[in-house]
């Protein structure tokens, strides 16, 4: 198949959010800590009416309706998520409920899990299927997203919730550059979910931040090596990437990730004119560089102009929703398509940096080869973000407490109001005496 990649994309996020300025006041932290320190404006969340299965059903059903795709056209469905409500039964099998009416049960693919990386792995699987001799000519769907919630404390404002649904096939406007990828994986305990009774992760915040940056270094170096070997580009650098989408735990981390690309370019070519003002960092050791705040600031400064051009347009969803874990990079892509015109995107290379704690990371890229404006119109991102309603921090906290208390409850009927949900949202009706879940749709 030719030009395999992303043919269409849509995103689902809940109708309610908490304002980060109000949350700063409520939490008694200094003004600006969440809004400037983390770079976040709003955080999306859900109550006990939604779980990962209902949210993925919402994303998929809305996608199929908006893009007028038939369930019988799908031959593969991959789910990337780390929001687990069952240790055996996959979210993919729950989504098969939506296929019933079409009579199409011949659908490959299953769930992929490792922190925020599962969506990228799912996308690779789907693209590789279409590109392989196992492909039967049908399309593939990739569903990637999470309910990102943290226990009370420093990490809580870096939560969020969102699910991306992506259609993969040949002749795609965003063609995956198959051989151009760099990956970095290693064993590290930075963010993990060993407590099966809780929805919350166990987090070593500072370690997760340096691990993210280390992964940027290694995955970027491996990607540049491919640009050199496969594309024949001598001295490849950021200038060979037109746009760069990052996994966004919060947007400040993306600013730092981008600055790290510039730092890597500097270490590869310190004599380059753009780096005249940062020569003093040439001899700082790489290990030391991870915690050197002066160096970090200097490279944020040096890369400011490029950041504004290549990455700022990718942050609309992340800043206003929060972390979507596996969905995050695809919300970044959706933001870029919504914020940049097709004239700006035409023929350009969009690179993605996907990071999942634990850790698994890749840099990979797409080439824009056909008009994406119909996709942007369908996602209608900024209008939909603006149509949400704000909830007070006190109510948000009460809802978080409710989720914590009722997580994994047996014979449970949720108490959250169905009226607050966007039209077309699936919701949990009840959990029966055998933990079987029943869903309705608004
Ligand atoms: N005005 C402006 N900036 C402020 C203010 C203020 N009033 N107060 C603090 N800041 C800045 C700090 O200087 C710091 O900036 P820096 O990062 O440039 O040094 C930033 O805000 C964060 O402040 P900290 O005190 O470092 O924050 P804290 O330790 O309380 O929590 C953390 C931050 C660790 C990211 C936490 O939110 C967390 O654990 N989140 C979950 C883990 C995570 O998201 N990791 C990222 C990669 S892994 C993943 O995707 C899950």
UniProtKB/TrEMBL annotation:
Reactions mediated catalytically: acetoacetyl-CoA + acetyl-CoA + H2O = (3S)-3-hydroxy-3-methylglutaryl-CoA + CoA + H(+)
Hydroxymethylglutaryl-coenzyme A synthase N-terminal domain sequence ranges: 1-173
Gene Ontology molecular function: hydroxymethylglutaryl-CoA synthase activity
EC numbers on record: 2.3.3.10
Enzyme class of the recorded protein, top EC level: transferase
Keyword Hydrolase attached: no
Alphabetized PROSITE patterns for the sequence: HMG_COA_SYNTHASE (PS01226)
Binding site for CoA: 208, 252, 256
Gene Ontology terms describing biological process: acetyl-CoA metabolic process; farnesyl diphosphate biosynthetic process, mevalonate pathway
Highest taxon above the source species: Eukaryota
Active-site residue list: 82 (proton donor/acceptor), 116 (acyl-thioester intermediate), 247 (proton donor/acceptor)
Coiled coil (residue ranges): none
Residue intervals of the Hydroxymethylglutaryl-coenzyme A synthase C-terminal domain: 176-441
Keywords: Acyltransferase, Transferase
Keyword DNA damage included in the entry's annotation: no
Membership in a protein family: Belongs to the thiolase-like superfamily. HMG-CoA synthase family.
PANTHER family: 3-HYDROXY-3-METHYLGLUTARYL COENZYME A SYNTHASE (PTHR43323), HYDROXYMETHYLGLUTARYL-COA SYNTHASE (PTHR43323:SF2)
Purpose: Catalyzes the condensation of acetyl-CoA with acetoacetyl-CoA to form HMG-CoA.
Name of the molecule in the record: Hydroxymethylglutaryl-CoA synthase
Biological source species: Coemansia erecta
Organism ancestry: Eukaryota, Fungi, Fungi incertae sedis, Zoopagomycota, Kickxellomycotina
Gene name of the encoded protein: ERG13
């Amino acid at each position: 198949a030719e030009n395999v990649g992303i043919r269409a994309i849509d995103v689902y996020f809940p109708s309610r959010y908490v304002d980060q300025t109000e949350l700063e006041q409520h939490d008694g932290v200094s003004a600006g800590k969440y809004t400037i320190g983390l770079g976040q404006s709003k955080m999306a969340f859900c109550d006990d009416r939604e779980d990962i299965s209902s949210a993925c059903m919402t994303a998929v059903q809305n996608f199929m309706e908006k893009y007028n795709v038939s369930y019988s056209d799908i031959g593969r469905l991959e789910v990337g998520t780390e929001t687990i409500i069952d240790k055996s039964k996959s979210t993919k099998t729950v989504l098969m409920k939506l296929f019933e009416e079409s009579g199409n049960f011949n659908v490959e693919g299953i769930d992929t899990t490792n922190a925020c990386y599962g969506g990228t792995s799912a996308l690779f699987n789907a693209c590789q299927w279409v590109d392989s001799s196992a492909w039967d000519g049908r399309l593939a769907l990739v569903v990637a997203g999470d309910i990102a919630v943290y226990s009370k404390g420093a990490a809580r404002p870096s939560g969020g919730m969102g699910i991306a649904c992506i259609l993969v096939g040949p002749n795609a406007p965003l063609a995956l550059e198959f051989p151009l990828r760099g990956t970095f994986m290693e064993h590290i305990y930075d963010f993990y979910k060993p407590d099966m009774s809780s929805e919350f992760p166990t987090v070593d915040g500072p370690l997760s931040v340096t691990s993210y940056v280390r992964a940027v270094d290694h995955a970027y170096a491996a990607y540049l090596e491919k640009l050199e070997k496969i594309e024949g580009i001598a001295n490849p650098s950021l200038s060979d990437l037109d746009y760069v989408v990052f996994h966004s735990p919060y947007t400040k981390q993306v600013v730092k990730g981008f600055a790290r690309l510039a730092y890597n370019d500097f270490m590869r070519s310190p004599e380059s004119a753009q780096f005249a003002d940062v020569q003093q960092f040439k001899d700082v050791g790489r290990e030391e560089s991870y915690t050197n705040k002066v160096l970090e600031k200097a490279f944020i400064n040096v890369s400011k102009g490029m950041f504004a051009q290549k990455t700022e347009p990718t942050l609309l969803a992340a800043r206003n929703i929060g972390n979507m874990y596996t969905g995050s990079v695809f919300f970044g892509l959706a933001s870029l398509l919504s914020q940049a015109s097709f004239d700006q995107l035409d023929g350009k290379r969009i690179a993605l940096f996907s990071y999942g704690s634990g850790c698994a990371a890749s840099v990979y890229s797409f080439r824009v080869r056909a008009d994406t404006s119909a996709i942007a119109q369908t996602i209608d991102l900024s209008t939909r973000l603006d149509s949400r309603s704000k909830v007070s921090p006190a109510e948000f906290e009460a809802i978080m407490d409710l989720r914590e208390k009722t997580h994994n409850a047996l014979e449970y009927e949720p108490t959250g109001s169905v009226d607050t949900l966007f039209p077309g949202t699936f919701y949990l009706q009840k959990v029966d005496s055998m933990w079987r879940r029943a869903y309705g749709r608004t």
